[in-house]
């Protein structure tokens, strides 16, 4: 969960893959004439001829054998009969020097002889299993997209990009794009719009090492798909650039050894041209970096820009022309396994959000102490011991601890009976009340105006600042009228069209439903007074007055909460925690609808870009799967968060059960993956292994991957050696 609260060559992947539907020959192999002597003297052609002769010999042998014996190979099979198994095999060498086992027989029971690679042969049992999977997960019928896996040598400008998907003129997957003879160079990327008032921040106490920049390429790989859900343009995030692993993480220690201050990671991947990212700064030595000191120093240099806590009241000063600061609170726990790639990720997050912004953000780790017998409130030595045992030295100054016993002390009230508790967990635990420790943290840190709640297994392929900043600015522009209704739906550009069309559709659905729109907190029996009620104030801004233009209501105010998944009504939604509510006197259905109503009113779901691993056609299929709830939303019966429907998210780049997110992330990092692509399709961990150093170094490869900024989750492991 993440939310902001207040308070001309052919890439090797296509060329050698026997499962993909295209067979494209490199321009280098196209000769107007070939003499027999040249033909046999060239290893590439000799292998092809060997293959053809072997297959031809096999077919001839099988035909002769079938005639002499009177046995009809793969002959007519009566109803209920099984497909005749292949009766002959041959091992040949393909044009890439690989050994391939060829099968000859009637593969599909049509009475005709076929010769196919062994890994394309599908038995009846396999067909049955595939059919069962298809019935459970209909999205498996859609073809895989290849456009994510083209590399640096296929980069084109945005104006020349032909997205593989969504595409109304050509059917995916598209043929592999032409390749350039050279790899372009990345450029320093600056998503900040700061003036001279922002003072430079440094990694070291002596202020000799300025916070580094990340690097991006101008353009994106040809056929790179556009998001199936969400939008770059809508949020103001650039989609005409891409990031490779070295431009993204090289400034933070990827690609060089510990002896030079790096992390010894990325050395086992292809790295042609990576030196560019260190040309100006050199390879930064992170051995002695202390991120807490670096953040505090940055804030002190820029504190003239920010609102401060009033010493008299202990609360943040009333809104002024000065900015409010934002805390990014990362949830972690004792026992979390820190890896080199995790360290890289959080170095990037701190540098890009805090140091490069001049202290606009401050990053903290909120760590759960799982051992409930640890007296974390007793003395500072116990606290420091726990931190030292569980957190790398460079991050230790950023950590705050909490535990369930501590939350019981902070929230001692009688919560009453729980309607349903599927997890069996305590109400004070992280599983059911992650907001408890976050609220305590907020009370302890009045200097922050907003709080982002972040998780350890989330990654962003792009600038963290650009993502956080653009989401916040977009959310502030949203009118409160029908805000909750829009936030209960996925925005699907290929289906809905423009955002204005989407907004109109939401209004029509709301009117047709006969339900009153949500417009601020509702009253219900037993509701306790909120602070504004006690003070006789309203939660609504002046722009929402009786005579005000409703289309301008709330425009320009900071959102109370920004979410990265829709805000949906859990009643009858099938979500596993739909009835996990406590403190109400009445059972469902009266209590259940209240689960969607937070204390705050300005709640926004930000439609960030989400990629699909397959070409969903027609585009209405996406809407039918992800907005299948009540009134074409994610709420109520038919919700995509129903346990029976959550499988639809497996091929997306963002959801807790996604298979595609981790696969795409590891391929981008340069590691080979079983990606399920090919004839008949498949899922992650199925199909053929693709990518990795050998493939990316091949002269026919398009090189390492380059992706637009996209949020991926969950990332349960990164380096292949970490695989559970």
TrEMBL record:
This protein's UniProt keywords: Membrane, Transmembrane, Transmembrane helix
Keyword presence, Membrane: yes
Transmembrane segments: 45-64
Annotated region described as Disordered, given as residue ranges: 676-700
InterPro entries: DUF3405
Basic and acidic residues bias locations: 685-696
Keyword Transmembrane in record: yes
Protein known as: Major facilitator superfamily transporter
Lineage summary: Eukaryota, Fungi, Dikarya, Ascomycota, Pezizomycotina
